[in-house]
Write a structure and sequence with these properties.
Length: 529
C-alpha cells in the first residue's frame, strides 16, 4: 500500500498552507477533510439570505495572510491560480452611540492629522506607536510568528540584549505586556481614538484588561494602516479554491467527506490514520490541524500522554449575523460608505463590559458589534445597487448562564429562540446607526456559537480563536506548556491550527512553520505553479 510523505488532517488555512508548500517541494501530500468542502472558516455561500447575495459565513478579512510569510512564499502561485484581493482605503472605523465616528485610512500622514484634530497630540502618539512597531518589526514579528523554542529565537534575543542592554530588553518586554486599557487611557485623550482601537483586542481573543493587549493593538494598527482590511474577490471560499488548485497542480491529493478516527502509532512513531470507514492510510508524517482535545483525547486516545489537553481552556463564543439589503446604506455619520470594518462601540468601558459579561456566561446587554461591508470592496458580492452586511459579535458566551439585559429568557444551551432574540438585540443597535435600515432590510441570517461549532469541529463551543489566548496559554505555552513548537510526544506527528503558536487568524503561520521544519523552504523538485 502506498505511503504518503505527509497526511494532513483538516483543511483550514494552516493545513492548506502546509499542503501547498510541501506539495510544491515535490513531496506526496494527502489532505483529508470531514466536511464536504475544504477551507475551514473560509466559507462563502449564496444560500445564506437571498439568491445573488454571497456571504462569507465565518472569516472574511485577510490582513494577517497578506502581511505574513505564507503569502510571501505562496502569493504569486496563488494569484496564478485565481486568488485576488479587494481593498478599501479605509480599513476600519468606529461609530459610537452618540453618532460620532472616526475612520482610519491607509495614509499615515492623514491619520496623524485626523487623530490630532480629534485629540491634541493623539496623531503624534499614533505615529509613535505604529512607528515603534515598524522599527521593531524584525524582532516583534519573529516573536509573533516564527517557532519560538529554537536556536533562532535564542540568537534573536541575544542580539536584542546586546542592542538594547539587559535593562532595555526588560523594559521592552514590560511595555509589551501592557493591557490595551492601560495603553489607550494613558496615551490618548480622544474618546473617539480610544473607541476606535478598543474593540480590536476582541479579534485576537483578548479583553481590554488582558496582558499584552496593548502591544497586539499597536500591531493591529500598524497592519491595518499598512495593508488595509482586504477581502477575497468572490468570497473567502475562493481562497480555498485557489489553494486546492495549487496543491493539486503539484500532485497533492485532497479528499473531502473523509474523517480520521484514530492516528496509528507504533513504537512512539506515527504511521498514518484509520478513518471512520476503517480505511487505513499510511504516511511518514501526520499533520493534525485540530483542537487539542480532538487530537489528544480523540485521535490518539489511549496512546495520548496523560493530561496533555485536560487543562486547555477555550475562550468566548462568536456570533455571526448576515444581511441582504435592498440599497445603499445611510450611516448615522458621514465618511463610512467605503469602510471595510466598522465597530459599533462606545469605548474601552463598553467593550470591557460586554466581553466580561460573555466570559461569565451572560448574553451581553450591549454587545460589541463589528460590521463588515464586503460589497464596498467587492461589488460582485451582491446584485448591482444592493448591499450586504457581515456582522461579527466576538463577545458571545459559549454556554449561557443568563441575560445581562434581563430581558431574554435563556437555557444553558443556544436554542433557535435564544439565537433570534439575541439577533433582535443586535439588530436594534444596528438600526440606531443606520438611518434607512428598515427601508432597505430584505433578509437576515444568524449563526450562534452552537451553529458555528456544528459547522466546524475546530470551533469548540463556537470559539473562533482555537482556545483562550491569555498569556499563560500563548506564545511558547500554546497549546500546553510542555509542547515544543508544533511537535508532539509522538515522532512524526505535528500539531497546527489556531490552538498552536502563532495562534488564531487567517495567517497560516503554524502551517508555514511546520512545512519549513519538514524542509519546504528548500529548493522544490518542481518549478512553476
Amino acid at each position: 500500500m502506498a505511503t504518503f510523505d505527509h497526511l494532513i488532517i483538516g483543511s483550514g488555512i494552516n493545513a492548506l498552507v502546509a499542503a501547498a508548500l510541501l506539495s510544491r517541494k515535490g513531496d506526496s501530500v494527502l489532505v483529508i477533510e470531514r466536511e464536504d468542502r475544504i477551507g475551514g472558516c473560509m466559507y462563502t455561500s449564496d444560500a445564506v439570505t437571498l439568491p445573488g447575495y454571497h456571504h462569507d459565513v465565518m472569516a472574511t478579512t485577510f490582513v494577517l495572510f497578506l502581511t505574513g510569510p505564507a503569502h510571501g512564499a505562496l502569493g504569486d502561485d496563488l494569484a496564478a491560480h485565481g486568488l485576488e484581493f479587494c481593498h478599501s482605503e479605509h480599513p476600519t472605523a468606529v461609530l459610537r452611540p452618540d453618532g460620532s465616528a472616526l475612520a482610519l485610512s491607509m495614509d499615515r500622514a492623514a491619520n496623524v492629522a485626523t487623530f490630532n484634530q480629534s485629540g491634541a497630540g493623539d496623531g503624534d502618539q499614533h505615529a509613535a506607536d505604529v512607528g515603534g512597531v515598524e522599527q521593531d518589526a524584525d524582532f516583534l514579528f519573529a516573536l509573533l510568528g516564527q517557532p519560538l523554542w529554537s536556536a533562532g529565537t535564542g540568537w534573536l534575543l541575544a542580539k536584542q540584549a546586546w542592542k538594547r542592554g539587559l535593562n532595555g530588553l526588560k523594559t521592552w518586554f514590560g511595555e509589551a505586556l501592557e493591557p490595551a486599557r492601560g495603553w489607550l487611557e494613558t496615551r490618548y485623550d480622544s474618546a473617539d481614538v480610544q473607541a476606535l482601537w478598543a474593540p480590536w483586542v476582541l479579534h485576537v481573543g483578548l479583553t481590554p484588561e488582558a496582558s499584552y493587549g496593548g502591544q497586539m493593538s499597536r500591531v493591529i494598527a500598524f497592519a491595518l494602516e499598512a495593508a488595509g482590511a482586504p477581502i477575497v474577490k468572490g468570497g473567502a471560499g475562493q481562497a480555498a479554491a485557489a489553494f486546492r488548485s495549487l496543491i493539486e497542480a503539484h500532485g497533492g491529493v485532497i479528499r473531502t467527506g473523509i474523517e480520521a478516527r484514530k492516528i496509528m502509532v507504533d513504537g512512539g512513531k506515527v504511521h498514518g490514520v484509520i478513518t471512520t470507514d476503517d480505511e487505513q492510510i499510511y504516511a511518514k508524517n501526520v499533520i493534525a490541524s485540530t483542537a487539542p482535545g480532538q487530537l489528544y483525547e480523540g485521535l490518539l486516545g489511549d496512546q495520548s500522554p496523560p493530561q496533555t489537553a485536560k487543562k486547555f481552556r477555550h475562550g468566548r463564543g462568536n456570533f455571526q449575523l448576515h444581511y441582504a439589503l435592498d440599497g445603499p446604506i445611510e450611516w448615522a455619520a458621514d465618511g463610512l460608505a467605503d469602510v471595510a470594518l466598522i465597530h459599533l462601540a462606545d469605548g474601552v468601558d463598553s467593550v470591557s463590559k460586554s466581553c466580561n459579561e460573555a466570559e461569565r456566561g451572560m448574553l451581553p446587554e450591549v454587545p460589541t458589534i463589528c460590521v463588515g461591508q464586503p460589497h464596498a470592496l467587492d461589488p460582485s458580492r451582491c446584485p448591482e445597487g444592493k448591499a450586504v452586511l457581515w456582522l461579527q459579535i466576538p463577545d458571545a458566551p459559549m454556554q449561557i448562564k443568563g441575560d445581562a439585559g434581563g430581558k431574554i429568557k435563556t437555557t444553558p444551551e443556544w436554542t433557535e429562540k435564544t439565537r433570534e432574540a439575541f439577533a433582535d438585540r443586535i439588530e436594534a443597535i444596528l438600526k440606531n446607526h443606520i438611518r434607512n435600515f428598515d427601508e432597505i432590510k430584505l433578509k437576515r441570517r444568524a449563526y450562534s456559537p452552537a451553529d458555528l461549532a456544528a459547522m466546524n469541529v475546530n470551533l469548540v463551543g463556537g470559539d473562533p480563536y482555537g482556545g483562550a489566548c491569555a498569556l499563560d496559554q500563548f506564545f511558547v505555552w500554546r497549546p500546553v506548556a510542555g509542547q515544543v513548537n508544533n511537535t508532539t510526544p509522538v515522532k512524526g506527528l505535528y500539531h497546527i491550527g489556531a490552538s498552536t503558536h502563532p495562534g488564531p487568524g487567517l495567517g497560516g503561520g503554524s502551517g508555514f512553520n511546520v512545512a519549513n521544519a519538514l524542509g519546504a523552504s528548500k529548493k522544490s523538485k518542481g518549478a512553476g505553479a
